[in-house]
Amino acid sequence: MKELLSVRNVTKHYNGGSVVTKALDGISFSIGKGEFVAVMGASGSGKSTLLNVIATIDRVGAGEILIDGVNVCDMDENALSAFRRDKLGFVFQDYNLLDTLTIEENIVLPLNLKREPLDKTRDALQRVAAQLDIADQLNKFPHELSGGQRQRAACARALITSPSLILADEPTGALDSRNSKLLMKTFDMMNSAFGSTILTVTHDASVGSYAARVLFLKDGKVFGECVRGDRSRREMYAEILSVTASLGGDVDVY
To answer: How many domains does the chain have?
Structure first.
């Protein structure tokens, strides 16, 4: 499997007056192209910081992050903005849809920012809307949709630019258990049908069980991992709970 993301000896400190917090402590791992990976760990383990530095929202203190062979740590802000727009897709807990735009306008916004031709934009919209089963919702506004529909719209927006890497931050956090399952089936389809490389941060063991691999963080380091392989989701779920218990951290169980 071709390597798509490589995190190499990344360190990140936060200064809080006289207290220095080491959020990431020389962390290293890689993700292959087309892989679906979840990151789990207790609060304060470094999950959110890790996602932020990979997303180029925050800067590392030391180390390298390579996405498609490009070291994003060496880029200036203008280059990072273009890289983020062209190479990364985002799915947030709170959807991040613009209330004043229709679902269609929200989904195609990344392509409009790139000034893509209208015919290419229309074709991409029809493709992702059909795959995510929201083609009949495109003329509605976000407040007219259920939470699950809004999150699928957010997934469509993340997919429409065919990004190298999709980053999801607690994507089921605002959803009930039924819609959480539907969303994770959507992620599974994005990974299998579109070949999307997905990295998600989650507290939810059920979410983690959909991934091909789960990385566990503790004190800013990789503590261990679970690889699903040929096992069922139920077996993967049981192992996640076992590892989480050994970490002594919090996890959502549904």
So the answer is: 1
200 belongs to a structural domain:
yes
- Mean predicted lDDT score pLDDT of the chain: 91
CA distances from 55 to 7, 40, 160, 179 (A): 12, 17, 18, 26
> What is the spatial distance between Cα 162 and Cα 215, in angstroms, rounded to a whole number?
25
Q: How confident is the model at residue 254 (pLDDT cuts 50, 70, 90)?
A: very low
Residue 171 included in any domain? yes
Answer whether 13's CB lies under 8 Å from 45's CB: no
Mean pLDDT of 173-182: 87
CA–CA separation, 12 and 68 (whole Å): 22
CB atoms within 10 A of CB 73: 17
For residues 82 and 103, give the distance between their C-alpha atoms in angstroms, rounded to a whole number.
24
Q: Which domain holds residue 122?
A: 34-46+76-247
Would 101 be classed as within a structural domain?
Answer: yes
Give the pLDDT of residue 194: 86
**Is residue 26 domain-resident?**
no
Longest dimension (CA), the chain: 56
pLDDT tens-digit map of 25-72: 999 999 999 999 999 998 889 999 999 999 999 999 999 999 999 999
Do the bridges between strand 3-16 and strand 19-32 make them parallel or antiparallel, or are there none, so unpaired? antiparallel
**Residue 253 pLDDT greater than 50, yes or no:** no
The three-state secondary structure class of 64 is: strand
CATH number assigned to the domain comprising residue 220: 3.40.50.300
Residue 106 token pair? 């929200």
